[in-house]
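Here's what a typical entry looks like (FtsX-like permease family protein):
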Amino acid sequence: MNSFRLALRVLRGDRRTRTSAILTGLGVAVATGLVLLLVSLPFATEARGERSTWQEPSYGSGEDGPATLSLASSEDYTGGDKITRVDVAPLTDPGSIALPPGVGKLPAPGEVLLSPELARLADGMPGSQLGERFGGDVVGTLGEDALKFPGQLVALVGHDADDMPVTAFQQNGFALGGAEQDPLLQLLAGVGVVVLIVPSLVLVASSARLIAARRERRLAALRLAGATPRQVISMVSAETAIAAVGGALLGAAASPLLHKLATFVPWDGGTWQASDFQLPLGVAIPVVLLMPALVLLAAVLGLRRVMWTPLGATGSHERKPLHWWRLLSLPLAGLFFAVVVSTAEDEMGMMLVLLGLALIVASAALVGPWVTSAIGGIFGRIWRRPSVLLAGRRLRDDPKGAYRASAGVVLAVFTGSMALTLMPSFESMAGSSSPFRDSVLYVPTDAARAERIVAETNATLERYGQRERAIGVGEVVLAKGENSGQQALVLDCERAEGLLRLDMAGACAGTPGVYSEYPMELNGVTVSAEWGTQGVPLPADTPVRPFEVTGEDMYSTAIIDPAVLPEGVSPSEVTVAVPTTQANREVVRTALAAAAGGAQIESREMRIWDQQTQLSDLRRVTVIGLVAAAVLSGCSAAIATAGSVMDRRRTFGALIAAGTPVRVLARALRTEAAMPALVATIGAGVVGVLVAIGLYSLVEEESSVVLTPWIAAPVVLGAGVAVLAASVCRPALNRVRAEPLADE
C-alpha cells in the first residue's frame, strides 16, 4: 500500500485525525488567501497608476520628441472631496495626439470633459458652487479606464496655448503607462505578510498538534516494526499534503472573494476596481506552492525524534533543557534591524529592513520557550496550590509546546504596540506652514496674472452677491548683507490680521511700518523683489512693531506695509487671497477657480488634506490588520490549548481516575497558558515600541516618536485573549473524563 492510500485510510478511520486535517487545511487556506491579498496590493496601486498617469505632467517626455501638448494639473475640492483638474492645450494638430484610454476626445478651448461622478455632482448643484469653476461647456464624460478609482472626480479642461496656467508643462502627448507601485503600500504589505502569516502558520501548527502525540506513537510503532525513515517521512508527507494542498487550493479559490472585499477599503482617496488585484501568474503560483511546502517542511522537521529515537517517542522520555544561547537571538536580530534601518536608502535597503523585522519575529520562537521554561522553574519552587505545581511541571517539561499556545498572541501584541506607537507619531507630523488662516483661499502667481485674477474674481463675486473681495499680497525680501534675508508679505496691518494666522493686537496703532514676530534692526536692511537681486534701503526711521503667531506650525514671516515700501520695488510674486465664511466657501472657490484658469488654489485645510487622508488610510489598515491578527492568534491559542489536553490524554485521564478534580486541572491549564502569555506579551510590547521607533526613523529623522498610554492596550488585550482562549480547556477535560482510557 502506498503512502497516499495509507493516509486516506487513516483519515477515514480516525475522527481526531480528520478534525486536525480540516483545521490544518483551513489554516493553510487563510494563510494563502492573506498572502495573495497582501502581495497583490502593490500591483493594485500600479494598475491604478496606469489609468491615471495621463492626469499628471510628463516631465521626462522631452526626450521622446517635440512638444505636442501643454498640460497643467491642479487639485480642487468640493465638500471635502478632491477634484483632479487637468488643463490642456494642443501645440499641434489635435488629431495627431494619442488619447489615453477612457478619454473620447481632446476638449477644444472652452470645452470640458467631466468624470461621471463629478458630472452628477455638478448637475445637482447651482453653477456658482461647482459647475462654473471650469469655465467651459461640458461636452462629454470620461470613461472608467481614465479614472484612478471608481468615483474619482476629474475635469479635463480645454484651452488655447496662450491661456494656460503659468505652471503648464509642454510635453510630447499624454503620459501613457510607466506607473510605479505605491512605496508606502509596498512597505505595509511587506509588514503585513510578516506579521499576519506567522499567526496563520501558528494556527496551522496548533491544528496539527491536536493529534501530535497519537501520530508520534503511531509512527514510532511503524519504525519499531521495520519502517525506514524514508517510509515514515513519506507517510507523514502524504497525510500532511492532503490537508496542506487542499487548503492552499481553497485559499487560492477564495482569494477573488478577498480581493472583492478589498475593493471596498478606501486608499489614497478612493476605492478600487475589481481588476486592480489581479496578480501575475509568475507571482501567484509560487505563493500557492510555497504555503503547503512550508507546512510539509515543518511536519518533516518534527519527525526527528520519531525517526532516530522511536523508543524515546513511545516512552515520552524527558526532553533536554533549553540552552541560554536562545536569549541571544533577540538582541542579535535587533542589532541587525537597527543597522539596516540606519542605512536603508533604496529598494534593497527596504527589503533588508523587512528581513530584520522577520528575524525579530522569528527570534520570539527561540526566546519564548526559554522564558516559558524559566517561569515553570519559578512555579515549581514557589507553588502553594496543586494547580500551580502542575502548571510549573508542564512549563518546565515541555516549554516549546506550552509557548505554542501564546505564540500568536505574542505576535499580535508586538504588531499592536508597533502600530499604536507609529500612529500618534505620524499624526504629530500633520500640519501646514501656510501663514494664511484656514478660512482663506489663495492662488500663488506672478504679478502680471495676479491683477487679472483679482479683477475677474471680484467681478464674479459681485455677480454672485458676495461681499468678500480678492486682494493681491506681494512677496518681497528683507535682506541685510549678502548672506541673510527674510521673506516679507506686502500687506497693511488690518488686512494682515484678517488674512494671516497672526495676532496684531496693538501693532496697528500708529504710523505704518514693518511687523515682525522677532525684534528687527532695520539699519542697513534693503528691500528687493526677489532673492539675489539688488535691494533698495529702508528708511532708518521705519517703525518695527511686534505681533504674535497663533499657529505653532507656521513658518516665520514678516509684514511690510505698502505705505513704507520703497519706490522702485515692485513684487514679482503675488498671492491672490480671498477670505471666506462657512456659508459661501464653495461660491468663493468657484469665483477664484474660474478666474485662475487652472492655477492651483490653495488653503491650509487643502494642504493637510493629503496628510489626513493618508492618516485615515493608515488607521483603517491598522485596525483591519490588528483585528485579523487578534482573531488568528485567539483561534491558534484556543486550538493549541485544546491540543495540549489531547496530547496528555493519558496523563489527565490517569489524574482524573486517581481523583483529581477537573477544576484543579482546568486551573492548572489556565495558569500554564496565561502566565507565559502575560510575561511574553509585556516583552513583545516593549520590542514593538523599539521596532516602531526604528521604522519611524525611516520616515522622519528629526522629530522623535510620540508615546501615549495606548501602547499598553495590546499587552492588556493580549493577556485577556490568552486567558479567554485557555477557557476551552474545561470542555476538553470533560471530554477526556467521558472517554475510557482504553481508547488510548
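The chain is about 55% helix and 10% strand.

More examples are in the samples folder.
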